[in-house]
Write a structure and sequence with these properties.
heterodimer, A: 2 domains, two-stranded parallel sheet, about 5% strand, B: mainly alpha
Chain lengths: ~120, ~400
């Protein structure tokens, strides 16, 4: 094989492979942009609705200054409880977060659950 | 009594034992070696096992299962299909699927049904890494030419660097189809599948040698979600673009994309299941055993086969190195947002090469998950090697 032929095969091969795949890059990139634009246009309307609800959700943390938090309860626990309360419909405010006393109930958690199951309204 | 001894003597003379040559014994032992690698070490067992058994069958004397002379079309002869159908054995008939390039595109159909192109669509820059890793193919072509191989042989050897078995079989059966060469499709397939199985051993040292600890530790940002519509448009667009630029790559890319469209459309569940299971398995058996049958002693027990083996591993190493080096360039250009390790996945070998990127990346940073990022170049490598195959078929006369 002549050196010029070998060089021609190598250069042609590399250039054609790169050109072919760069054309595909351009196409896929353009397709991604178009779909992103379409999706963001679709998402705009639901976003407006969410914004109207935000002030209601803010009302829950507004009660936070009056909240009494017992020592030993971490901020993460308070945040989880606040999130659970906020997820319920209606206006609820957390006034205090205290550990449940072991003396407050003679039954354990499993026992309490059993009572709840058996006394549920038919 | 004499006639009894004569008939016993005749029977012995016509037995396989009497016709064993040292070459066929050596080939049988080599087939045992590949069977061992496939069964014990699980080296690409789905293909290496049928290939090794085809090698065993074809090298047992007087089995009459495969007749290379039926496919000899050197000197401008035409393939005599009537003769093959009348006088051919089982493996001759199965080999028609390789000779006529039917099996590799059908394998690609099944691969298409199993491939998720979402990581590539989400990060189209991965195409560059898939293209760079094909450098191994073209640089090995130079080495093969330097070692005295003909353009057809050099092209067939070079395609091993694509790390894609069906593509290697497709290219070599076309380029070497006219006969009269010292190597055959079986030789190429054997080397390709052996090295594909060795990806986890071959690639990591090259990847580590070419990258710094800092580069290997790069954590890439999460890929965006790809919509179903994008996934449906992608295979159609790729088929059109590639077929228009390199028509000779159309059988491989077209079938790969048909399989992917069947999967992504979601309306051809039965076809998808068949293509990726029953059809794929049947073709794999036919392809493996018939390719193995071409590995006769005269093609394997010579110095050219040794050269093919050496060039094959060089092709793999160069492909890996090219991918990693372009990954490094992308690391610099993007100011450290691309982990160069995903570049090595540009050599097809799906999903093994991507897993290697993930494994090497996690060795530096256990919290780093590169798998999905590496799948982009990995599937781009499949398209890239099919394009490279098309280029070789277009340039090299056959």
């Amino acid at each position: 094989m002549e050196g010029s032929y070998v060089l021609a095969v190598v250069l042609t091969g590399l250039i054609v492979v790169f050109v072919g795949l760069i054309v595909l890059i351009c196409f896929v990139w353009l397709m991604g942009k178009i779909f992103k634009a379409i999706n963001s246009a679709k998402a705009k309307k639901p976003e407006n609705k969410v914004e109207t609800k935000v002030p209601e959700a803010v009302s829950v943390p507004a009660a936070a200054p009056a909240m009494e938090i017992e020592d030993g309860i971490s901020d993460e626990i308070v945040a989880v409880i606040a999130a659970a309360v906020a997820s319920m419909s209606g206006n609820f405010a957390i006034k205090s977060v205290k550990k449940a006393s072991s003396k407050s109930s003679r039954r354990g958690a499993w026992g309490a659950q059993g009572i709840a199951e058996n006394t549920r309204v038919f | 009594m004499d006639s009894f001894f004569q008939s016993i003597k005749d029977l012995c003379m016509t037995s396989g034992l009497a016709n064993l040559t040292w070459q066929s014994v050596l080939m049988i032992l080599i087939s045992f070696g590949f069977l061992y690698l496939a069964i014990k070490h699980k080296f690409e067992p789905l293909l290496l096992l049928p290939i090794a058994f085809g090698m065993l069958l074809t090298n047992l004397p007087l089995t009459e299962m495969y007749h290379p002379e039926l496919f000899d079309i050197s000197g401008g002869k035409e393939l005599d299909f009537g003769n093959i159908l009348h006088n051919g054995g089982l493996l001759d008939l199965l080999y028609l699927g390789v000779k006529l390039q039917i099996y590799p595109p059908l394998i690609f159909l099944g691969i298409g049904c199993m491939t998720d192109f979402a990581p590539l669509i989400a990060n189209p820059k991965s195409f560059l890494l898939g293209a760079a890793a094909q450098g191994g193919i073209f640089f090995t072509f130079v080495g093969a030419a330097w070692l005295g191989f003909t353009p057809q042989e050099a092209g067939s050897i070079a395609i091993i660097g694509g790390a894609d078995g069906p593509t290697a079989i497709f290219v070599s059966s076309k380029l070497l189809g006219s006969g009269g060469f010292d190597i055959d499709t079986g030789t190429i397939a054997l080397a390709a599948y052996t090295y594909m199985a060795l990806v986890p051993i071959i690639q990591p040292p090259i990847m580590k040698a070419l990258t710094t600890k800092k580069e290997r530790s790069v954590v890439m940002t999460q890929l965006r979600q790809v919509s179903k519509t994008e996934k449906i448009i992608f295979p159609i667009a790729v088929t059109i673009v590639i077929a228009l630029i390199i028509p000779s790559a159309a059988p491989l890319v077209g079938m790969l994309m048909l399989g992917n469209l069947i999967k992504e459309s979601g309306v051809c569940e039965r076809l998808c299941k068949t293509a990726q299971n029953e059809l794929m398995n049947i073709i794999t058996i036919f392809l493996g055993i018939s390719v193995g049958a071409t590995t006769t002693a005269d093609k394997i027990v010579n110095m050219k086969f040794v050269k093919v083996i050496i060039l094959g591993v060089i092709a793999f190493c160069l492909g890996t190195a090219c991918g990693v080096l372009l990954g490094k360039l992308m690391y610099v250009v993007t100011k450290g947002k691309v982990n160069p390790l995903i570049g090595s996945a540009g050599v097809s070998a799906v999903p093994m090469a991507a897993r290697v990127s993930q494994k090497v990346g996690q060795e530096e940073n256990p919290k780093n998950f590169l798998l999905m990022h590496a799948m982009g170049p990995n599937v781009a490598g499949v398209i890239g090697s099919a394009v490279a195959a098309g280029v070789l078929l277009s340039i090299i006369p056959h």
